Amino acid sequence: MKILIYITLFISYPVLSNDQNLITKGEVNFGFAKDSGNIERQELKYGLELTNKLGRNISIITLDSNISEKKDDRYKDEFELSLLDIYNFDNKFSGIYGKITYYENPIIGYEQQLRFGVGYLNYWFQSGKNKYFKTRIGAQTRFSDYTTGDNDRRDYALVGYRAGFPLMTNISLKTELNYEVNILDSHDYKVDGYIKSIFYVNKIFDVNILYKVNYSNEPVPGKKSTDTSLTTNLVYKF
Predict the structure, then answer these.
(1) What is the rounded (10 degree) CA torsion for 162, 141, 190, 113?
(2) pTM for the whole thing?
(3) For the chain, what is the HEC assignment?
(4) How far is the C-alpha of 226 from the C-alpha of 160, rounded, in Å?
(5) What is the pLDDT along the chain (238 residues), one digit of tens a residue?
(6) Cβ atoms within 10 Å of 111's Cβ, excluding its own
């Protein structure tokens, strides 16, 4: 319910605001992925990202999901919907964020999960859109319903970085790495990251190749620790 309220406010934000500096943009992506880990499969992925920028405040809604079949079996889709709100300080090199995420992935053991996170961002370097290095430090609370029938709440501390570097005029490389550890149990930690090559076709379309890795030191019972995917995406920007 809270997520639906935030989405409603996000969508109505341009209408409610009289600020002429409001910038709204978005992108839709479709891709083909090869997954390995808890399941070996090929799948179609799709996603949506909407961004509102008003002064120092940036709000981003992201949706990621997939459709997959193996032989005659259709798997329940992985689904992730998040709202990220960032407020940048006067110095333009730092800011704070809050993030809410709803997540489903029965393949790795989650019937559903709700995450609430806050943290601090530092922009160590940025030159244009595609050349940057950023770090974050924060905390996140997760409420999880597992495929085992159990449910719980866990609190994590997290650190991470995001970087981008243009290789050629129309090609960039982007990467991200995150480390999360349970505040009460240091053996319960997770590492995830990606590396992405982006080919800028024109002002409307991009093509990217994305390799993602997710590792959990204490996965859901009966599940593997590591999952990877290699995806080729076509991105439409608006």
Answers:
(1) -100
(2) 0.86
(3) CHHHHHHHHHHHHHHHCCCCCCEEEEEEEEEEEEEECCCCEEEEEEEEEEEEEECCEEEEEEEEEEEEEECCEECCCCEEEEEEEEEECCCCCEEEEEEEEEEEEHHHCEEEEEEEEEEEEEEEEEECCCEEEEEEEEEEEEEEEECCCCEEEEEEEEEEEEEEEEEECCEEEEEEEEEEEECCEEEEEEEEEEEEEEEECCCCEEEEEEEEEEEECCCCCCCCCEEEEEEEEEEEEC
(4) 19
(5) 444 444 444 444 444 444 458 899 999 999 999 999 998 888 899 999 999 999 999 999 999 998 776 555 555 568 999 999 999 998 889 999 999 999 999 989 999 999 999 999 999 999 888 999 999 999 999 999 999 999 999 999 999 999 999 999 999 999 999 999 999 999 999 999 999 999 999 999 999 999 999 999 999 999 999 999 999 999 999 9
(6) 15
